[in-house]
Amino acid sequence: MIAFVRKEMLEASPPPASQHGWQGWMRENLFSSPLNIALTFVTWIALGAFTNMAVTWLLHGVWTADSYLECQEIILAYYGPEASGPCWAVIRERWHQFIFGFYPVEEWWRPVFCFGLMMLAFVAPLFSDDVRNARRVIVPVGVLTLVLMVLASAPVAACVIGAVIFVGALAISAKPLRLLPWTGVYPFVAVWLLWGGSLAGPVMALLGLVILGMVVRLLSGRLGVPLSAGLGIVAAFVWWTMLEPQIAASLPGDLAFLAQVGSENIGGFLLAFVIGVSAISMALPLGILLALGRRSDLFIVNKLSVGFIEFVRGVPLITLLFTASLLLQYFLPPQVQFETVLRVIILVTFFSAAYIAEVIRGGLAGLPKGQQEAADALGLDYWQAQRLIILPQALKISIPGIVNVFIGLFKDTTLVSFVGLMDPLRGVTAIVRADIDWKGAYWEPYLFVAAIFFVACFGMSRYALYLEARLKTDHR
Amino acid sequence: MAYATEPPTQGFRLSQLIYDTRYRGITIQVVTLVLVIAALSWLLGNLSANLAAKGKDIDFSFLWSRAGYDIGQTLIPYTNDDNHFRAAMVGLVNTLVVALLAAFLSTVLGVLIGVLRLSKNWLVSRLMGAYVELLRNIPLVLWIVLTYAILSEAAPEPKDFKVVDGVAKQEMFLGIAAVTNRYTTMPAPTLDRPLPEIAGVPTSGLAVILVLMASFWVLSLIRRRATRVQEATGVRPGTFWPGAAVLVLPVVTLLITMGFHLDYPEFKGFNFKGGLQLSHAFTAMVISLSLYYAAVTAEVVRGGIQAISRGQSEAAFALGLRPGRTMSLVILPQALRVIIPPQISNYLSLVKDTSLGIAASYLDLRGTLGGITSNQTGRELECMLLMMGIYLSISLILSGLLNFYNASVKLKER
Predict the structure, then answer these.
(1) CATH 1.10.3720.10 domain position(s) in chain A
(2) Are A94 and A438 in contact (CB under 8 A)?
């Protein structure tokens, strides 16, 4: 006999306090087993001790002083004889050398402008079909660049040109791919902006590339890509070596809108970016060719590519840098003389080309075989298939890897101090520490440089992860 | 690629070299080869012209002339009367020692950190994540320079360890080791009756390594026999004690016969006497390389473990395996296949990055052959070629060995 039947549902009771809320979280994540409890306490104590030490040290920081000794005196006066603290005054007084090297103060707006324009040049390849993200880059970069340029007291004309460029970019960003020509022109603009001098040089150099492109476009239909590219290179070479000097001589001499800045003035993170970005952008086409060569069935082409890649990947970067500074002159005719920066960029380009080739080879290997077969079935020849079918897909999935190569390269630019250039880490820090006023400061410059490197590299690696996650969805 | 389906009716025409896919490949290769040879001969022509203009030649005989400089850390006998070749070999040994030590320490630390990063403990996993990101995203040179600066500027002077009236200003660590601003001193392993040298190379260390290798070989035999017995009878004979005996006893016997003991450093007069005195260059290199590559290794280990699907560990638990055995029998063998290939390239980068010893003035191969020897003799071309050749051979040999190992543990697909 049934004595009692419940007619209505019971309210679901809440889970016990130990299962949800902060208690549940702590139980699950911090105290789930005796071992974990011990780990948590040990970590907590170590972390607490470290944080305590670091925060005390940082709180004792001195921002205004004229020398390291004065810093120590201020700390002694305020916090007692046992205290120690950072002397941020050295950074406050010398931060510009870490960023710009010895770039003239009145020209600081040029590297700033150059950096902003570089971000604009990245928009087309990185966000080719992503209007929202393209605009998310263009708008803040444009605003920040213009503000910084005004702060660096740039000439009004430069600010107006900058504003026009960024607004124009925003206007056509409905199709980010339309910004692609800017990506092609940018390197020449950047060289002119950074080094200054006559506008004629970069324009003439750019014209050589335009000639190359036109020859390939006109002749590749009849002669095939390799042959027409060869002819184009010959034509461009003729232009650069024979025609250009004559035309340049006949031009009115005063095309120099910007004061000339010598390479010896470029240092710090500016130098790191110049070397990193120019080497990566020049290494990209070379790396693509090497990757294609490594996958090619043509015996000689294949072995040459493999030999180059394995050689470069087998020796340390520092030996290549020494080659740049000591040996490159031996292999060139006596009348050809490069500055150290340029020699370093050439060798670093070779270095990164080998690594990029391996990344792109990974991208090529990641494509299903059917893509090549479909291209063959359509009757496309080798270069058409690569250009229209294979490379666009392979490059797209290689972008995160290329970003990682760039991060490694950016970190490796610290090595150029060993061939006498002013990298942010050893070059500039040595200069700052050699000053009698700032002798003894070793934590401060290193922490400052480390912080900038960390922000830049961590940001880029997160971006690479984000790209990887976004690109993956297209293939799964 | 398009292929011709019917044989051409006409004879051979020159244009076929470009348009016919059967010949085009050959044309491209010949043209490439000609271009490469032309470029190389242009470069070499420039080289010989430039060398002639400077009154130089390519000559490796400088290797056999007196070096005349001292090297702080020499693991094979060397004095400044020895020749440049010997100095380069000392440098090479220094490179390899740093590389080996750092590879070992970074692997141990890296596996630990990688596993801890996946810990269920929120605090620990976050802390390890922070360590990995902090180390990876800051250039290795900075770590080397910073470690070196801390060691040589923040450490006390040797004289602070002097005991005055029974008290020293600085206490030694456990009474046996000390970090001073000039060097780190610690007990030195010393042999009273070392084995004789053969051709100028000390053999005692080699003997220890050989004995250890033989022990490991015997150990693997014991393990294999245990597996055979287990498969035949279902009962696995204990391998722990025999294994430990095989590993420990021969080496200990050898060390005792050679008169092994530790030589402790002591403060006498104005400096430490006895014991091992490690230069800060060496210590800074080992510490920063180990910590940096530990972070890189940790990422690889984490990726490898995460690549194994959860179903594997669930299946192992369902079979009744304990967590430890699940890890060692199910997860790790599979994760290892994912971990090894990227770890190979990590080891290769580590070996190449020992050349960053330049940041701490460590006299490795680059410091001796590519540094002092090159500057003293003015033979930068020869030195650089030799140095590149040596680094390249190390890389190729190492990658050959590691790829062989990789092939042996790789999943065999049939």
Answers:
(1) 98-103+263-476
(2) yes
Do the interacting molecules here have an ipTM over 0.95?
no
Residues of chain A contacting B2 with CB distance shorter than 8 Å: 376, 379, 381
Q: Which residues contact A334 (CB under 8 A, 6 or more apart)?
A: B49, B50, B53
Residues A90-113 pLDDT 10s: 888 888 888 888 888 888 889 999
- A253 and chain B: CB distance < 8 Å anywhere? no
More confidently predicted of A364 and B261: A364
What is the secondary structure of A416-437 as a DSSP string? Answer: GGGGT---IIIIIHHHHHHSGG
Helix A443-472 × helix A89-100 angle, to 10°: 50
Q: Does A299 touch chain B (CB under 8 A)?
A: yes
Cβ–Cβ contacts within 10 Å for residue A7, how many? Answer: 5
What is the model's pLDDT at position B195?
Answer: 73
Mean pLDDT of all residues in A345-354: 92
B391 touches chain A (CB under 8 A): yes
**Interface contact B118, partner A, CB < 8 A:** no
Contact A314 B134 (CB under 8 A): no
Q: What is the pLDDT of residues A253-301, one digit of tens each?
A: 666 678 888 888 888 899 988 898 888 888 998 999 999 998 888 888 8
In this complex, do B18 and A223 lie within 8 Å of one another by their Cβ atoms? yes
Q: Which residues of chain A lie closer than 8 angstroms to B153, CB-CB?
A: 442
Give φ, ψ of A49 to 5 degrees.
Answer: -60, -45
Q: Write down how long chain B is.
A: 414
| pLDDT for the residue A253 | 60
When scoring B355, B379, B394 by the number of chain A Cβ atoms within 10 A, the one with the most, hence best to mutate, is: B355
Is the minimum CB–CB distance between A415 and chain B shorter than 8 Å?
A: yes
- B53:A382 CB<8 A: no
A442 in contact with B at a CB cutoff of 8 Å?
Answer: yes
Interval B21-37: pLDDT, tens: 777 788 888 888 998 99
Q: Which long-range contacts (CB under 8 A, 24 or more apart) does B191-194 make?
A: B191/B258, B191/B259, B191/B260, B192/B258, B192/B259, B192/B260, B192/B261, B193/B257, B193/B258, B193/B259, B194/B258
Domain boundaries, chain B: 1-51, 64-187+264-409
Which residues from A are below 8 Å from B47, CB to CB? Answer: 330-331
Helix crossing, A109-126 with A180-195: angle to 10°? 160
B76, B90 Cβ separation under 8 angstroms: yes
State whether residue B366 sits within 8 Å of chain A by CB.
yes
Q: What is the pLDDT of residue A475?
A: 46
pLDDT beyond 50 at A304? yes
Q: What was the pLDDT predicted at A366?
A: 82
Q: Give the per-residue pLDDT at A476.
A: 42
- Residue whose structure tokens are 């800060």: B280
CATH architecture of B64-187+264-409: Orthogonal Bundle (1.10)
Residues in B closer than 8 angstroms to A298, CB to CB, are 25, 28-29, 32
Task: Tell me the pLDDT tens digit for each residue of B265-291.
Answer: 777 777 777 777 888 889 999 999 999
At the topology level, CATH places domain A98-103+263-476 in: MetI-like fold (1.10.3720)
Among candidates B18, B145, B370 on the partner chain, residue whose Cβ is nearest the Cβ of A319:
B370
Q: Grade residue B104 by pLDDT with cuts at 50, 70 and 90.
A: very high
Strand partners, B266: B273
Residue B181: pLDDT over 80: no
The answer to whether the CB atoms of B370 and A322 lie below 8 A apart is yes
